[in-house]
Amino acid sequence: MLGVQSGQSRTKRSPGIWETRGRTWQEGNGGTGPSSTEEGIEDFVGGTYVRFDAPKAKIRRSWPGVRDMILHRYVVSRVIWAYMLSIAVTYSITLCLFPGLESEIRNPTLGEWLPILIMATFNMSDFVGKILAALPYDWSGGRLLFFSCLRVVFIPLFVMCVYPASAPTLSHPAWPCLFSLLMGVTNGYFGSVPMIQAAGKVPPEQRELAGNTMTVSYMTGLMVGSAVAYAAYSFTSPATGTSFSTLNVRTPANATGF
């Protein structure tokens, strides 16, 4: 089908035969119109004919290969590697303790309310830490990584609040609440600052890629911390279950006098 633009007149000589400005052409089945060298557009004096049935030019799509994708991420990672490790270590240490180990802390006075109080303290302090991360301060990657690794001290502190189960080393309920407060503030702060500042260390065209790389590091830290917490619980729970089962077996025996 051929369309006419800019008021170009044409005269029909016979069925399927048209004449325009001295040019005669045929349309219909098997008919051909004026030849065009510019994708179906032909210029005439006083008007332009457009071939609407002309095939569209193929859009050439260029997708980066796997090798280019890995190379681009490697270049960005070389610049922000300290920020990547910092956020991964921060969340790994947090997930090692929260909520798994913290939920095992008990106290004769507070009973089952102590784990709830500890978790509420952590969530509120984590919120405060994220607000403090908005304060303008330019951290270097090395210092961020150092303070993130320093948070490993919370692991033995919380362990002393739980073990030994009969009489924990730090048995007062104020200790786990204090440790949870400090861990929440540092988690919110050192978990947000690397994500905020990493994008400013690369050129503008690479900031989106830097954000994606930091997200991968963040998810890796969560996965590692959860796996460590699950493994630690798997190693400690059978012994606890065995001691309780032995106690339950011996108690009736003592009660009956046998």
Please give a structural write-up:
With 258 residues, this protein is mostly helical. The protein has 2 domains: 2-51, no CATH class; 66-237, MFS general substrate transporter like domains (Growth Hormone, Chain: A). It contains 7 helices and 6 strands, in the order ββββββααααααα. Helix 2 runs parallel beside helix 5 and helix 4 packs antiparallel against helix 5. The relative contact order is 0.12.
Largest sheet: spatial strand order = 1-6-5
CATH superfamily of the largest domain: MFS general substrate transporter like domains
The whole-angstrom Rg is 36 Å
CATH fold-type name of the largest domain: Growth Hormone, Chain: A
Shape: elongated
- Decide which structural class fits the backbone: mainly alpha
Terminal Cα span: 105 Å
Largest sheet, if any?
Answer: 3 strands, antiparallel
Number of helices: 7
Number of strands: 6
Pfam families: Nucleoside_tran
Family: Belongs to the SLC29A/ENT transporter (TC 2.A.57) family.
Region (Disordered): 1-40
Membrane topology: Multi-pass membrane protein
Layout of SSEs?
Blueprint: E1 2-5, E2 11-14, E3 17-20, E4 23-26, E5 41-44, E6 47-51, H1 66-97, H2 113-132, H3 141-150, H4 154-162, H5 174-190, H6 193-198, H7 207-256
